[in-house]
Design goal:
Elements (H helix, E strand, L loop, with lengths): L3 E2 L2 H10 L5 H6 L17 H13 L8 H17 L2 E10 L5 E11 L6 E7 L20 H20 L5 E7 L21 H8 L10 E6 L12 H6 L1 H13 L13 E2 L2 H9 L3 E5 L22 H25 L1
Parallel strand pairs: 4-5, 4-6, 6-8
Antiparallel strand pairs: 1-7, 2-3, 3-5
Helix pairs in contact: 3-5, 3-10, 4-5, 5-10, 6-9, 8-10
The structure holds zinc ion.
Length: 335
């Protein structure tokens, strides 16, 4: 994903305004109830997650209308069928900024499909057909080990993990297609609005089951490199603030506050944006963002398996699994 706009300063100002300034007022507020203890969760396996990154990269670039793309879709769906109760294959044709008709497939794996309390983890699984941030071979597709591969691998491993100790709530793993065929900045064509994230735009307008609802969603994107850090993304902090706080606080409780940095940066137009806008499910984005933005490998031929760190995959996976089971425990207590 690529778009970012700088509203960080405004958001930081707003956040600062929320801090209680009147200490008397703060002192008279009753003490908050004790936080629920961290619940025991099944083990997320980083070796397994890494093997799913490699398996995807081994197919070659997963660009729509390619054989590698179709083979990878079949592989993803078959893996998920072993762990989920129902796997929905949502086929659609997306029209790219340049008019290309992309044969696309969203894949949704449902665990406990009957449960009315649900959460979802999502990722895009397609890869960018060009390397427009590279100096060389800009017209060739990237391998997308991090961008597409890492987040899909973590989502797959979450499905395998929770299958071993099923929660009571429903969990959906949603793999969006045709996210990364967005219009390059140097395109000579007329500007097409909303050219990124075509799979999530389609799904949010045509969910896999009618009237689909989830309490919240977490979208993962570029979550695999050794140099990753995940500050809180601005759309998430605006449109799904409680989810953003819940996820980053859970990460802190697990000791991952240096990776899940509790600082808000600008707004990214990623799949979570369209989920929030179109289907109104509060959804956050966990996306790599550092002083170098999305990283030197972003949309270049450097986006290869050698950048992928099991430690990073492990941390992201463990935080996601903990969030799912904390929420499950809190819901079970109330029902
Ligand atoms: Zn991308």
């Amino acid at each position: 994903m690529i778009r970012i706009s700088g509203i960080a300063v405004l958001l930081l100002f707003l956040a600062a305004c929320n801090n209680p300034k009147n200490t008397d007022e703060a002192a008279s507020t009753p003490a908050a109830p004790a936080e629920p203890a961290l619940v025991t969760v099944p083990a997320f396996n980083a070796d397994s997650a890494y093997s799913y990154v490699k398996a995807q990269v081994d197919f070659g670039p997963r660009t729509p209308n390619s054989a590698a793309h179709d083979k990878c879709a079949t592989w993803l769906a078959n893996k998920l069928k072993a762990w989920a109760d129902t796997v929905y294959i949502q086929k659609y044709t997306a029209t790219a900024f340049d008019g290309l008709k992309m044969k696309s497939t969203n894949i949704i794996a449902a665990i406990n499909p009957q449960a009315t309390t649900r959460v979802f983890i999502s990722s895009h699984w397609d890869t960018r057909p060009i390397a427009d941030e590279d100096d060389h071979d800009r017209d060739k597709p990237i391998n997308g080990a991090d961008d597409g591969g890492s987040s899909t691998a973590v989502a797959m491993e979450i499905a395998r993990t929770i299958h071993q100790q099923r929660p009571e709530i429903g969990v959906d793993i949603i793999l969006f297609d045709s996210e990364d065929y967005g219009q390059p900045d140097d395109s000579k064509l007329p500007k097409m609005q909303d050219s990124w994230c075509l799979g999530s735009q389609y799904w949010a307008s045509h969910p896999h089951v009618g009237g689909y609802r989830a309490d919240f969603g977490i979208n993962l994107d570029m979550v695999g490199t050794a140099d990753a850090a995940f500050p809180r993304e601005g759309v998430s902090a605006t449109m799904a603030d409680w989810v953003s706080q819940y996820v980053w606080h859970t990460a802190e409780r697990l000791g991952y506050s240096s990776l899940f940095v509790n600082r808000i940066f600008g707004q990214v137009t990623d799949d979570h944006y369209y989920v929030n806008q179109i289907i109104h499910i509060p959804t956050v984005d966990v996306i790599r963002y550092g002083e170098d933005g999305f990283g030197h490998h972003h949309h270049t031929h450097k986006d290869n398996l050698d950048l992928i760190s099991k430690n990073t995959l492990d941390a992201v996976g463990k935080v996601m699994v903990q969030v799912i089971y904390q929420y499950n425990a809190e819901k079970a207590k109330k029902s």
